[in-house]
Structures are given as C-alpha cells and as structure tokens.
Write a structure and sequence with these properties.
This protein is about 35% helix and about 25% strand. It is α/β, with parallel strands linked by helices. It has a 6-stranded mixed sheet, sandwiched between helices. A 4-stranded antiparallel sheet has the order 2-1-4-5. A hairpin with a 2-residue loop joins strand 9 and strand 10. The two termini are about 30 Å apart. The mean pLDDT is about 95.
Length: about 230
C-alpha cells in the first residue's frame, strides 16, 4: 500500500533522504528508527503528502504523489509531532470539522466513539487551548483514526503521554495492525517499537541502513542492532 523508489529530498542544499527505497503492505507495522536528522519525519511528511519529493517515485494507497495527493489523503491518518489542532474549538468541534472534510458517515456517533477511544469523552466540550500536552496528543490520535484510514503514519506518537495513555495507544495500534492496516511509526523509543512493530527500518543520514522483520532480529537484541547501524555511518 506504500511504495517508494529512489526517493531523494533536499532542503536548501541539505539532503534529508538519499535515494530511499521503502515498501509497506497491509498488516505491516513498520518502526522507523534512527537518530535526530536521519530523515524519519521527512519521509512521513512526504508519505502524508505534506512535502514534495525532490526526486523519486512515491505511491500511497495506489495513488502517485504529489499529483494525486487528495485521493491518497482519504486513505491516510497522520499523527504529526505537533498536534495540528484548532485551539479555539472544543475537542468535539475539532473532530467534527475534520470529519466533515472526510465526509465521515454518521459523524456525531463516530465523534463520540473516537472521544471514548482516546479517553476524552468527559472533556469533549472543553476548548483545546485548555488541554495538557498529553490530552492534545490523545486528540491528535483520535483525529488520525476518525475516518477509519487504511494507512496510519505516526511521528513520535508517545510524546507527552502518561502511562495510562501509552497503554491506550499500545492497544489501539495493535488493534489497527490486526485489522490489516499499514502502520508506519517514527520513534526514538526502542521499547515501544520492539513490543509493537513487525518490521524495523533504521535510517541514518537519509539512508536506509537496516530493514529487518521481528523474527530476524539477532540474539543480542534490537538495541544492539540499532547501535551497530548508527555507528556504521
């Protein structure tokens, strides 16, 4: 459902991605790992059609990007590092606004379902500008799954979440993967990645250094594999 070939992205003379090849199919949960500046967020923003590639081919849900971005977005839910919510609307109004953009059927009922899912039902009528960082992240996750997308892109989704919220997100992501969706999650948290993902892609300086499935992780573990990949740059 995601196909990337020879992807290059440059910013003002700096190369963030260098001829990257990447593929993810239904039911895969891919953890994008790597140090700061490795290109993880850049890749997610390109897959979400929020950045244009400099070179290369990108297909998301069968739609070539950037030319068919609008069609691709119908199949994508994106949790960015920033919440990207409207602070002067309530949680319910934010979800309703985004639901109308995606023509979500039975929208009031679906909004209630999502508020319950992310544990915000009791404060659904509160203004978002009053929310804590963790509450903002919960709502951003709810917005990403509101339209029942086939592809979920997540950039450090555990940022600001307390233990209960982390457990909620673990369960939700596991369910999404079991239902056959594609999940691609950028994370610095090797523990969460190791528990959830079925594949681990390690980026270093815009290059894909390692791509292994869970059963291929060597005996010394994911952390050792990560350190080896980062130190080999």
């Amino acid at each position: 459902m995601i196909e990337v070939s020879c992807l290059t992205k440059r910013f003002d003379g700096k190369t963030a991605l260098r001829g990257l090849d990447f593929r993810a199919v239904a039911g895969e949960f891919v953890a994008l790992l790597g140090p700061n500046g490795a290109g993880k967020t850049t890749l997610l923003y390109i897959l979400a059609s929020l950045l244009r590639p400099t070179k290369g081919e990108v297909r998301v849900a069968g739609c070539p990007l950037p030319h068919h971005a609008a069609a691709a977005r119908r199949s994508v839910g994106f949790v960015a590092h920033q919440p990207l919510l409207y602070p002067d609307l309530t949680a319910r109004e934010n979800l309703t606004f985004f639901g109308r953009l995606y023509a979500v059927p039975h929208l009031p009922q679906r909004v209630d379902e999502v508020l319950c899912l992310v544990g915000l039902m009791e404060c659904g009528n509160n203004l978002v500008r009053t929310f804590s960082r963790g509450m903002l992240q919960r709502l951003a996750i709810g917005r990403a799954v509101l339209h029942d997308p086939q592809i979920l892109l997540l950039d450090e989704p555990y940022t600001g979440l307390d233990q209960a919220a982390c457990e909620m997100l673990d369960a939700m992501l596991h369910l999404q993967a079991m239902q056959g969706r594609v999940l691609v999650m950028a994370s610095h948290d090797l523990g969460h990645a190791a528990r959830l993902a079925s594949r681990f892609d390690i980026l270093v300086s815009g290059n894909l250094k390692v791509s292994v499935f869970r059963e291929q992780i060597p005996a010394e573990g994911l952390s050792a594999l990560y350190q080896q990949a980062v130190q080999s740059q």
